């Protein structure tokens, strides 16, 4: 009874979780809803268009993981410095990180514009899909800079407990994206029918709208994102020395994980356009529930990082274990919901019955793996990084996907020629191993590595 109260009876803990997690989860739910709406609308154009947009989206997905790597790594500093209210160091860290993510956005934009065919052919040899993917990517790349500003800026706001502005901006963006999809994909209000190009144009315009709202409101409210230009370009040498040893392992983690995921998608894409369409549907539906865990892991990162930054290591350790228990429990519930609703959810898409059945089986398998995946996500993204131990996260996350999922999926799909759903099921091996390592390392407490210990650094 005492242990139950210790882990589940702290009202202050749950108030903190709800205050942080719900707005962040709502923001990500809106983003996933926009992806769902995009997928449904593009799905009306047929399986070739749906697969093309999904494969073109893998390029922006890779870019987003670089963004996420810098955002997640920087949030170690944001949240821990927020614990001691060191606003100057927060701003210096943000400036340094932003230069990096902006360079990444420009690089991906240039490559996507100049070599769109090569990008799409990495995932498929179906020339009809390649042609549609090129049309989409050549427009979509012009939203990358806006997405960079929005992603990294909102990571600063969330880490410093300003969660409402990103949520409201995303609400407006999703509504705008849906409306613009209707206008440009199908040719309403006197506009030409643009198909996949219309979907890309809608995404670009809504991305810039979201970014402008965040920036304009931030400067009016004078929050941490609205820093003076002079201060933005002043970066301390001590910030550089501390920043990269902590952040680069996260960037390597996300980039290696992204490359591994791209390898998995290359295997999936070569097992048939219909199978890849089913995987696109599975990912889109799954993301609706995954948004809850994004919010929960962000709350974990802020609460654990804030406590450790303030020197309250015992509180940070206790909260980390609480989140480690909550995440798989919620995953079981949401997995059951996905299984129960798999038929009506897949019926939202205009696809053949065979593709729908494949997508339903993928959702079932995914729901079985879900509790392990969400515990692993909470540990690596929420707890270990917030504690300052980004190297353990790198070894545990990137190491397991490259040593287990990539070779097993490739063998099952391309050598052993297993049925598609069993090829996907091979990813369960990785999650099981990662779960076992994560439970052990969480309980050791070795991941608690404050970045705020030395306070008298030279400028």
Describe the overall structure.
The chain starts with a helix and ends in a 15-residue tail after the last helix. The C terminus is likely disordered. It is an all-alpha fold and about 450 residues long. It has one domain. α2 packs antiparallel against α12 and α3 packs parallel to α15. The protein has 18 helices and no strands.
**Low-confidence parts lasting 5 or more residues at pLDDT below 50?**
454-459
Number of domains: 1
Q: How many helices? A: 18
Radius of gyration: 22 Å
Q: How many beta-strand runs?
A: 0
Mean pLDDT: 83
* N- to C-terminal distance: 51 Å
Class derived from helix and strand content: mainly alpha
Helix content: over 70%
Let me know the largest β-sheet.
Answer: none
- What percentage of the residues does DSSP assign to strands (E)? under 5%
Which secondary structure elements does this structure contain, and how are they paired or packed?
Elements: H1 2-8, H2 11-43, H3 47-83, H4 87-114, H5 116-121, H6 127-140, H7 144-159, H8 164-186, H9 196-221, H10 229-232, H11 237-269, H12 273-309, H13 313-340, H14 342-346, H15 353-387, H16 390-415, H17 420-425, H18 427-444
